[in-house]
Amino acid sequence: MNAPHPAIEEHWVPTQQDFDDFARLSGDDNPIHVDPAFSASTRFGRTVSHGMLLYSRVYGLLRKHWPGAHHTMQSLMFPNPSYADEELLFRLCPSSDDPNRIQVEVSRKANGLVTLSGECLISGDVQ
Predict the structure, then answer these.
(1) What's the pTM?
(2) Pure H helices in the chain
(3) Would you state the CATH architecture of domain 8-14+49-124?
(4) pLDDT tens across 38-90, in order?
């Protein structure tokens, strides 16, 4: 029997350029993501990441660490914003009772607040 896949932890510091590039790529140019002057007047006080930019990083980690697996579903919540130039911790942890179910969490390194929480289902070679 194969050993269970270990939890994955990686750090990333998104930049305003990442937000701008993702806005161009996705077509989501909401000023909360790309306009620092506008964002300064909001409750966030500065630009915030697109949720799907964060998830695209999660997806990349899935592909990197489970290269033989196929992504079949994700369920996500974004309880707090992620800001440009603040380090994030990405944690992917296979469920102990189902290695196809990956628990996902992204948090701000500075204060531990969770900015993405959810799970993914993968199929195929998950070991």
Answers:
(1) 0.90
(2) 16-26, 31-34, 36-40, 51-65
(3) Roll (3.10)
(4) 999 999 999 999 999 999 999 999 999 999 889 999 999 999 999 999 999 99
